[in-house]
Amino acid sequence: MVGEEGAFVLGWDEVLTEEELSTTLKVLCMSEEEFKAYKDQDSWEDNSEEEENSPLSNEALSRLKPPCKQLLYDSVLLTLESYRSDLKAEQDLLNNKDTYEKLSRREQQALHVRYGQKRILHQLLELVR
After folding, report:
1. Does domain 18-44+51-128 have CATH number 3.90.1420.10?
2. Is the pTM of this model over 0.85?
């Protein structure tokens, strides 16, 4: 369901691996009975028009059912804990011209990537609160 890397790709406005996240949340939030029925279907594809017509935009994420929102929230917290520093530390480093200029070009680029990732994750936390 999730792919080889076991990760989902989030953008500023929507989930880029929408189908994978949608299916994963659906399965993980099912009761045991619902999962057994779902597993016994001929296809794991969901044919409901409601879900086909509702991409996982930021607005759609904020309207998820509470168990799915909690699962996403907890997952984002775990992901943020895997970083060595928090969003504020990255922002402080970006704003400190002297310290920033002492970083190699590669370190500067990595800082920008980490900062962007953390901003997206914090945005997701706000959406699923």
Report:
1. yes
2. no
